[in-house]
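Researcher: Next entry: Gfo/Idh/MocA family oxidoreductase (Candidatus Pullichristensenella excrementigallinarum).
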Amino acid sequence: MKESKLRVAIISAGMITNAAHIPAYQNLKDRAELVAVCDLNPVSAEGTAQRHGIPHWYTDAETMLQECKPDLVSVCTPNASHKAMAMLALEHGCHVACEKPLALTYRDTQELFDFAREKGRVLIACQTLRYNDEYQFAREMAKEGRLGEIYYSEFSILRRRGIPKWGTFHRMDANGGGCLCDLGVHMIDAALWVMGGPKFQAISGASFAYFGNSETDIVTSLKESGAPKGVHNARPYSPEEFEVEEFAAGTIRLENGSQMNFKTSWAVNLPDEYSMRFAGSKAGLALPKMEMYSTFGRYQADILPRVFHERKYEGLDFSGHYYLMEELFDHLQNGAPLPIKPEETLNVAKIIDAFYLSARNGREVTAQEVV
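Model: Predicted structure:
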């Protein structure tokens, strides 16, 4: 057990750093010491440091790692640089908590975990949606066998007009993908976690973009695009730069014979939607309402359990990061189980990798093609 505080540094000073990572670490003030933040933009780096009382700020990650020698590093950069920044932090002997997706391909994700194992460090992807009340409940029902064998699941996470416009989400060189990388990756992880982690077998997917680089005067809000707070010194958005998908849909086949259908969007001419459903041999379950569908004697029955929302970080923006960081510190300092396991992240990485290959080629792609 490590009694002293863990020294923490953060790479990138954008929305998720200011609204999620820093508050989650500050919540652990008796266990974590925020020592530095780094961003290529000096205004963002200095502003974040001053805003949160962080003693040091940098524009070069390697210099920060050399001078501050943190124990743990949060990587909050755009997707395309996750791998390089995580590798750099691991090379300097740091544990790493990296925003999702950990990398843009399965092979890069596997390389990162292999390198972390070689260095004897912990690497974890910030798949925080599973900490929401509805998924905690669903996982409990599934583990207790109340759903029986889950043979089908589906999710929809649709923003009618919610393209993130405060960073580089819309650029291929920075993000590597669009709504599937941003929203779908969370839902896929949560669904697989609830189902007990069945292995990915194959996917057929499609992606579309009609509005991102054509609509310039539609009224939207930061909150509707995923940023309830934490946006400071935003980069100017240019629709001409939009290069990724704004709508993605597909079908996933899993090795245990179950199937998952999905759709996700930043922009689509459909109403906003956030839902996930599971069909089991004993009962079905619909989220986020947490309503179960089964039978009672010879009657069909709808069951709506009374779930009291009184968990520790209830009502906080990005509460999943609070739970994740607390459990990560329990692992690092007390030897508790790792909350998000490498094999879970690798399973999701296969799906993301195979989806984009399927969408490009217009055909089903198997797990073997990306491994």
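Model: Note for the record: The chain has a mean pLDDT of 96.
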